Structures are given as C-alpha cells and as structure tokens.
C-alpha cells in the first residue's frame, strides 16, 4: 500500500510541474542587464513553461528558470485574412 501511495504522489508531483501557465505579453515585464534579459510577472521571475499571447491571437511557447528564457522558444503566428 505504501508503494502505491508513493507512486501516486510522484505522478501528481510530475503532472503539477508540467502544466503551462498562460499570460499576455502585456503582463510580462522585462529587465535587461547587458546581454541578459529577465522576465517577470507580478514582481516574480517567471519559472516553468509558459504560453505568452499577443492581442492578435499569436503566441509564444517558452520555458523560464529564475526569469531567464531557457531552451528554444516556439512562436505561433496567427494570420488573419
């Protein structure tokens, strides 16, 4: 029974960390220090995976650690006809 509880706890922990957070770019504050750009929202550095949307519906998927963008970012551009 303990093993089952432990496995369920691990699954819940991993799924909680993998969830994306949705923000508008307007809600993100940037700070530049030389070549480094830090990203904040509500005076907290961004951490984890985010989808950052434009008013047009286009968005960027990116992952942050302590306010720094890590890895590759993926931009989805919405074309309006």
Automatic annotation (TrEMBL):
Mind listing the UniProt keywords for this protein, alphabetically?
Signal
Which residues, if any, are the signal sequence?
Answer: 1-18
Write down what this protein is called: Uncharacterized protein
Q: Which organism is it from?
A: Fulvivirga sediminis
